[in-house]
Amino acid sequence: MSHTTEHTGTLAELAVGTSATIVGYDGDDVVSRRLFDLGFAPGQICELERRAPLMDPLMFKVGGTEIVLRRSEASRILVKS
């Protein structure tokens, strides 16, 4: 039997330069829908490219596009790595 170790968390928890696969959202509301419309869709691979000096905002690369989110928004996107 083989076991794989998967870490689940949020985009806001990623270290700069690391990637994770989006698995869903924390909540189902207008903000989650807007994040989906921006390209943060389940199954997409997302990389944290930069973090501002005060930890907010965060710059991600998803689907070949660089997008900046507030930390509060990134913390609503659930990922696995």
TrEMBL record:
Ranges where the Ferrous iron transporter FeoA-like domain occurs: 9-81
Pfam family, one: FeoA
Entry keyword annotation includes Iron: yes
Keyword terms: Iron
SUPFAM superfamilies per UniProt: C-terminal domain of transcriptional repressors
Record protein name field: Ferrous iron transport protein A
Organism (species): Arachnia propionica
Domain of life from the UniProt record: Bacteria
GO molecular function annotation: transition metal ion binding
Keyword Iron (UniProt): yes
Gene3D superfamilies associated with the record: 2.30.30.90
